[in-house]
Request: fold
Amino acid sequence: MDERLVEGAAKFGIKLSEIQMGQFRLYHERMVEWNEMMNLTRIIEWEHVVGRHFLDSLSVVDALPPEALYSNATLLDVGSGAGLPGVPLKIVFPDLNVTLLEVTQKKALFLEQVVADLGLPGLDVRTGRAEDLARDPDLREAFDTVVARAVAKLNVLVELLAGFCRVGGLVIAQKSSAPDDEIRIASKAIKTMGTEVVEVRDVDFAGSGGPRSLVVMRKSHPTPKEYPRRAG
Reply:
């Protein structure tokens, strides 16, 4: 079944090494083990994980310029859950500095285990709510790219993500269906957060399970300091 991951990655211009394939297999093993203790993901069989998790994560590459993936660029994965898309992106681009942000303590413990097992420098875990951590001076407008996968509707999501992104950087929301209505409803929030939609890119890959798209927003102005609003 490894061929499916190799071939799928190649469609995104990614050539996987044997070492990277081993890291993906180890990552999957940890997902299976921890899924017995907590609800990490309902998709756990290797053949489905390859498409619905790993290749879906790597599809973000379609929206990123080369400089966003190399030369110690920084990426924040908000609401990382089982480490998606941040961990697959880190495996494939080891020079990329990736931070995984997760609010649930148990899931954060899983992520810390994965970080330790993979032994990849520049892969870190932060535990807490985006509404709070976006006010941390070390994280505020500190990342070249901020991504999230199926966390919330776009009008809510852009408020949670934009404060972490530097001016000139990219905010990317991974969506499972045509996002036109979400973008229309979120248009005021997108502008208020200092961002603008520059592209909606449809992505297609084996095992996607249905239509997938990337809403790509560029950060053109600083996010007002009162955003994101605190939870509740």
